[in-house]
Write a structure and sequence with these properties.
Strand content: 15-25%
């Protein structure tokens, strides 16, 4: 688990931070939390589902076929897809809850991005939080607020019995592999909802989430394709004993382009 440290003037007044240039920190994430605000874009590029956290359902981007492997990250730490979930874009910072339930800005000390020179200052000459850090904090606050809305919408869908297990089997390295622990919207149950219950979902703003999740399911096959590309690269490297490149041409379907 990452070492989170609350940012205080006493501890960070003379320190600086660097922006990440690699997504290696996300390389072992098979799923990533999403918020409803990013659904319209995320659903166009990656499969989206739900996981049961024990406290309720959470909306997630499905990033891998097995534990500890994010197929969207290359061995060099490059993100190969056109969309990066918001949860990663504030790295190495995150918001945590204090004992009095306030949101506190924290930094991952073990990220390697906290330094004494170069990069951005934590605090300016007046001892105030620097503008770059204010921008990061504002972004994280927006995500946190939207996350509360997202959890509420997931709870509403569950209340109406619209979330069901997503039984997925994909072909990977010439073998069938089942994805476990994923859930999806039950489209049949949605279509059978009484009009008054459907109207409750509409007024709550749950319908965009529902339709985006259903739309995103078409991208599930890309995980199998990505897994095959990773496996092919690993095999080629083992034979040649030299780094190779992932052949990602298949991802350019449907007018997808990468920078």
């Amino acid at each position: 688990m990452s070492q989170l440290t609350a940012i205080t003037r006493a501890q960070y007044a003379d320190k600086r931070w660097k922006r990440y240039t690699s997504y290696s920190f996300a390389a072992k994430d098979a799923v990533a939390p999403l918020v409803v605000q990013e659904m319209p874009t995320a659903c166009m590029h990656m499969p989206i589902g739900f996981v049961d956290t024990g406290k309720g359902f959470q909306l997630v981007a499905v990033l891998g076929l097995q534990k500890d492997m994010n197929l969207w990250v290359t061995p060099e730490g490059r993100w190969v897809g056109p969309y990066v979930p918001a949860v990663y874009r504030g790295y190495p910072f995150t918001l945590a809850r204090s004992e009095d339930e306030r949101r506190v800005l924290c930094v991952r000390e073990d990220s390697g991005l906290v330094t004494s020179s170069g990069g951005e200052p934590f605090f300016d000459e007046k001892g105030e939080i620097s503008q770059p850090l204010k921008d990061v904090m504002s972004f994280l606050e927006q995500v946190a607020v939207n996350n509360q809305k997202t959890l509420a919408l997931c709870a509403l869908l569950a209340k109406h019995n619209l979330i069901q297990p997503w039984n997925v089997t994909l072909k990977f390295n010439e073998e069938e592999r089942a994805l476990e622990g994923l859930y999806r919207v039950d489209e049949a149950a949605l279509n059978q909802l009484p009009s008054e219950d459907f109207d409750v979902l509409r007024k709550a703003g749950a319908l965009p989430l529902v339709y985006c999740q259903l739309l995103s399911m078409q991208h599930l096959r890309r995980l199998g394709q990505l897994a095959d590309k990773h496996a092919a690269r690993a095999t080629a490297e083992a034979a040649a004993e030299a780094p190779g490149e992932l052949d990602l041409e298949f991802l350019r379907d449907d007018n997808i382009r990468f920078q």
